[in-house]
Amino acid sequence: MVDQQIDIAELLKCRLAVAKGILHERLAKPPFTTIDGVEKLKNRLTSEIRFLETIESGKQPLEKKFVETSNIMHFENIVNKAEKYEGVTAVLQTFTIKNVEDGDRTMKHIVDIVANNGNRWIKVISRSPKGICMDWLTGASRNILEQANDYIQMSKRFMRNFSAPEVVFDFTAGVPDRIANKLRSEGVNVVGTLVDINTITKVPEDFLEMLDVSETKDVETSSSEPYQPPINLDVSAVFVLVSNLTHEGGTNHRFSSKLLTQQAEMEREQPARRNLLEKIEGRDWIMCKTAFEAVKTIVYTVGGETERERWEELIRKVRIVEDNPSPKSELLQLSDRINSRSIVIFGSGDHYKAVTATANKHFVSSAHHQGVAFDVVLHESRALSEQKEQEL
């Protein structure tokens, strides 16, 4: 019994060392310094550390179940995998949307790792193959097949380039082979060592039949190039493309406008036009008539001569399309942040299967809360500035 207590004490010491190493060293360095959700991961690690420290100090009993069930090893696996995958943009990211088809019930889904610049959702499974198998056999809620269904269904609600993000289940300790085959048949890309299910436990024949698959769906691999749909230019995107503020020398002026002064400071740090072009160049550009007429009116009212010239040059590269809001956009209710013009612009982009380039984050967020998700490229806002330039 004494030896067992020593082993548990050593395990506790090891868990704490791992957690503190992740918290204070690994998460403080690239790539985690630029990844969303790292603060959430830090908070969860801190909570685990505090609990284990109450055991270390004697405030909680030194019991095996408390130490072994700590989530620290799972968080370590998430960190390890986040370092492995390309283009990681977030960890522990929550996707929230209201399901208008189910009485406006709020649906929340946490993705362990968002990779490939948003085109891949990764779930990290630290559970043992036996644990995975027993959860499924005993009908435990949220077993691995139910989780896969949730991932697949939710990914379809948050399209990237009008394709659902690839769903990857990465099993760090291995996965029962028949369950892996079933997951693949549902469209999940399975990563991990396959373990013969018959070596884990005796599975009833009728349960094995539930895992039979007749055809495996093709799952997009990381080596294939994602589809690049057209770009639907919102009014704000056009301003970024034509404003003097986003072109050479545009920030070398004084502005009486507080907004323009702030935007000039931001532009020196983060050039909005360059950043936007990196995301949309090489694609077809469209504008619906409502966006076209709105920009035209504003440019010829408050735009300067050079800004008007850029606008006229831009529209020669853009295909103007009829307003045609998609059915889902017409479900939106008008509010302080959702107006009829935005519904037409975003809805038309959705109809033409084009990703909308916009700085209107409030509209995108408010639409999500009403159960409508649009495929967008977000960028910083810039106003037309030429008429308000003053010499330094």
UniProtKB/TrEMBL annotation:
Per its UniProt record, what Pfam families does this chain match?
DUF1308 (PF07000), DUF5614 (PF18474)
UniProt superkingdom: Eukaryota
Matching InterPro entries: DUF1308 (IPR010733), DUF5614 (IPR041076)
Looking at the record, the residues that make up the DUF1308 domain are 231-390
Q: Where is the DUF5614 domain?
A: 10-207
Q: PANTHER family this protein is in?
A: UNCHARACTERIZED DUF1308, UPF0415 PROTEIN C7ORF25
Family (UniProt) = Belongs to the UPF0415 family.
Name of protein? DUF1308 domain-containing protein
Origin organism is Caenorhabditis auriculariae
